[in-house]
């Protein structure tokens, strides 16, 4: 496929994924604000930290490495062997589910049944939901490799909406059900998600559209495990790459969900504090999940298709190198500016946001400071997402293996630092440890990118340098909005709050106008793609 064609489809995939994420996180955002008024902080802490961690760990360990390895090839790969490899995620998921389920039930502190009823049923349901979701993995990878944008949007939309509707109904009618509510909602979510993919492929395969696209799979039967005579069951090169990525994904999961593991296994916060931390964490990470994650996922596919893994810059097609360098530079500039905007305005508007969202339960105590620190962490997340997506798309097997050792050392350091910082500074310690961890990962990825382009005329890391005028406007906006918070927020009534919002809106408008004047190349890229 032509690189420009891939870029067009990739940006469509990223923007529609981002739009989808915004819409559905907004729904679950509203849902959380609603359930906060009906359920205890402890119950939300157990669901959002303990049980969600079980589900995400099983799913991540069972499929992440397979996804990365199977999406690394081109679309002309031997799909029969790739599909066979992908079905191995299901037995792997069952093993992880049983093992981790027993750990969650017998080795971890069990919540008080009078405060959080039906914990055991919750563990079983969340473990089962992970296995159900893995049944759709071959369908998901096929759809992602062939850039089926609408399918992903519709499947995730329907599943999130159905989960939210069921949760609201059960919370209002049967609040005493406790974890049964979230267990049923979770099972409905994964069932709808998998069914959407299955039904779509049943209709798509064999259709005139599939024939026109010369789709590599012709019948539904081909999406089941198949033995080919005189050939191996799986592609061993893909399988070895999967094993490399598996070792790395194991560590990446510890780093990504590190604070939840520390909370879950080391009991540094009680369930109530875990509930507040998780709500603030979700609020802070909205942008990361809305915008940065879709960009990272989609452009990983773009870089992997435009440039060949394991080859140095001189051995690649020079037109493709020029295009990849240009896209990387503009992506870095884009996420940097989004991150800076959130950091600057997050400091002055955290308390107001929490007060509107969850009332005094969130806006008093550590909530506002947590969100302020998180707005700085978003800047680290933004840059790390793009630098790592490029690095992972180009590393050869040996480089991935070497990076695994770096991740191992980093995982251990991160867990130690978060444990000590949490004892020293409560839940804020988690976010500071995350900033440290992301900083080191960014340093590694930028070093890789610098080395990669060293022998070419391109310097994509220039994208990390905004114009001095824009930096000055950011500083002035930060000072003015910070002064406004001290003067008008948040216990001086609604009129003072509106003045504070107005001041922020003016500063934000000034920042955006400056951006349009100074970053013309970036504005053109965003508009054209």
From TrEMBL:
It is a multi-pass membrane protein. It is found in: Endoplasmic reticulum membrane. Signal peptide: none annotated. The chain crosses the membrane at residues 43-62, 83-107, 119-141, 153-174, 180-205, 330-354, 374-396, 403-422, 462-483, 495-517. One of its GO terms (cellular component) is endoplasmic reticulum membrane. GO terms for biological process: dolichol-linked oligosaccharide biosynthetic process; glycolipid translocation. InterPro entries: RFT1 (IPR007594). It comes from the Eukaryota. The keyword Lipid biosynthesis does not apply. Keywords: Endoplasmic reticulum, Membrane, Transmembrane, Transmembrane helix. Pathway: Protein modification; protein glycosylation. Belongs to the RFT1 family. Intramembrane glycolipid transporter that operates in the biosynthetic pathway of dolichol-linked oligosaccharides, the glycan precursors employed in protein asparagine (N)-glycosylation. The sequential addition of sugars to dolichol pyrophosphate produces dolichol-linked oligosaccharides containing fourteen sugars, including two GlcNAcs, nine mannoses and three glucoses. Once assembled, the oligosaccharide is transferred from the lipid to nascent proteins by oligosaccharyltransferases. This is Protein RFT1 homolog. The gene is Rft1.
